[in-house]
Design brief:
489 residues, 6-stranded mixed β-sheet, 12 helices, 19 strands, globular, alpha+beta, Aminoglycoside 3'-phosphotransferase, Chain: A, domain 2
């Protein structure tokens, strides 16, 4: 089923609703304009097959960003009281919830796997005698979503129990809800996890389409898709566009977040080499399956925009350095070495074929379960244009992202200087060796075009991290600087 947005509903007046979301949204962890002066407007509403469920669509504009958020709500009618406002359209705000501190990592999105006890859905506010509740964990919204969703067998599973759902805390850009089968105890293993996309984009969301295609070609390194729901809404110009609203996938039982596991091992002084080697095999297998599912494009194809060619990669690295050095004076000493790497890239005769990639791969995007890894979250950066997130790229960009997160795991785990370098270094070697075995590359020896490009892409990411840390966590600046020392020595 595909939901089509309407202008709104008479029982949810636009003006007081807009006033409420303008107060509530900035307190959400996934709100994209934290700290920025933004314009918020409710522009349309999606309706599910439940009179109590509404999904207002909120346009958020700040700086050069113009994006659309979905805010599922459940309406609860309250008994009229003497304290109700005379004007039923005038909002009465409930106490504002505490703001959650952000601990974003530039390379590591840290999802929490803690499952808090089932509780009452959070209140967004009140309009007259109608209480507005956050719908993402509410049984009414979940029941209506599952009934409307499509799935591999035509429909989403019908045996999930919305009344025992649990919202996962700590996510940065979406809201995920864990679901069990009807009749199971709360202690029973979950079987599904619904990701509600907070930021909507027109077109084929890779977090839905990529796992579906990978499973179709027989690759089992991703949680199996169980359901998805699409919608239509007006774009900024008033034209109807279509995209995904959310996706349901199989829950990975007993899973550990990859970053948390790596930090734990580093803190205990235990090696990560075996796990890193298995990651190398997993990533190479994922890249092979992505080629089977989506094909590959040789560098220099007639429609090639050059985004992954040697000249463009070299220019992007030089531009990244110029931007980063303006913000972080300590980077100036790396100027000649960075330009030397750019020159090596520019001198390459060609680049490997371009293909679909994960696009945002790091330890926080993999789960460890039953001594194996699975990959999650193919969405990429939600605020980036969809065309940029789905275009073919160099496979080694995923490898670079994973390697950079090893440095962060060592530091967050409590290792410093030579100890951190040794821990992450042996893990790096293990990953590259196993990746080479499967992919037929020579990254571990530093030979060939892919190895040169890997160095450039790691540098690019470390330079971005340096700016992020300088602006947000100056005490962590030493982590990307240590990475630059290793890459450029």
């Amino acid at each position: 089923m595909t939901l089509t947005a309407t202008a709104g509903s008479a029982d949810l007046p636009l003006e007081p609703l807009t006033e409420l979301v303008r107060t509530w949204l900035p307190t959400r962890r996934w709100y994209p304009a934290k700290g920025a002066e933004a314009q918020l407007d409710v522009v349309a509403t999606l309706l599910l097959d439940d009179d109590a469920v509404r999904i207002p669509l909120v346009r958020v504009r700040f700086g050069s960003v113009d994006t659309l958020l979905q805010v599922p709500l459940v309406l609860e009618r309250l008994a009229p009281s003497a304290t109700a406002p005379a004007d039923p359209s005038r909002p009465v705000d409930l106490p504002e919830p505490a703001d959650l501190p952000s601990v974003d990592l530039p390379s590591v999105d840290l999802p929490s796997v803690d499952l808090p006890p089932v509780g009452d859905p959070e209140a967004v506010g009140r309009i007259g005698d109608t209480l507005l509740l956050d719908g993402t964990g509410h049984p009414a919204f979940l029941r209506a979503w599952l009934a409307a969703a499509d799935g591999p067998d035509g429909r989403a599973p019908a045996d999930l129990d919305p009344t025992t759902a649990r919202v996962i805390t700590g996510e940065q850009s979406n809201t995920s809800v864990v679901l069990r089968r009807a009749g199971d105890e709360l202690q029973a293993p979950a079987v599904g996890i619904l990701k509600v996309f907070r930021t909507l984009a027109a077109g084929p969301n890779p977090d839905v389409d990529v796992p579906r295609r990978l499973v179709e070609v027989g690759w089992d390194g991703v949680p199996a898709p169980l359901g998805w729901l699409a919608g239509r809404w007006p774009d900024a110009g008033g034209q109807l566009v279509e995209g995904y609203l959310g996706a349901l996938s199989a829950f990975v039982p007993g899973a550990r977040d990859g970053f948390e596991l790596a930090c734990e091992l580093a803190g205990a002084g235990a090696p990560f080499d075996d796990e890193a080697g298995q990651l190398g095999t997993l990533i190479a297998g994922m890249h092979e399956a992505l080629v089977q599912g989506f094909g590959a494009e040789p560098s220099g194809a007639p429609h090639d925009d050059g985004a992954a060619g040697p000249e463009q990669v070299a220019r992007q690295l030089e531009d990244r350095f110029a931007w980063a050095a303006d913000s972080v004076p300590a980077l100036q000493e790396y100027r000649d070495a960075v330009h030397g790497v750019a020159a090596r890239v520019r001198a390459l005769p060609d680049a490997p074929p371009r293909q679909r990639v994960h696009g945002d791969l790091h330890l926080g995007q993999v789960l460890r379960s039953a001594d194996r890894w699975v990959v999650t979250d193919f969405e990429g950066e939600p605020l980036a244009p969809l065309a940029m997130r789905t275009r073919p790229d160099l496979a080694v960009r995923d490898v670079a992202g994973m390697l950079r997160s090893f440095d962060y795991a060592a530091a967050v785990g409590g290792l410093h200087h030579e100890a951190a370098h040794a821990w992450s270094g042996t893990a790096r070697d293990a990953l590259l060796a196993r990746y080479d075995e499967t992919a037929g590359t020579s990254l571990a020896t530093g030979e060939g075009s892919s190895a040169v490009l890997l160095t450039a892409l790691e540098l690019d990411k470390a330079l971005y991290e340096a700016v992020y840390e300088q602006r947000n966590r100056p005490d962590w600046l030493h982590i990307p600087l240590a990475g630059l020392d290793r890459l450029l020595r």
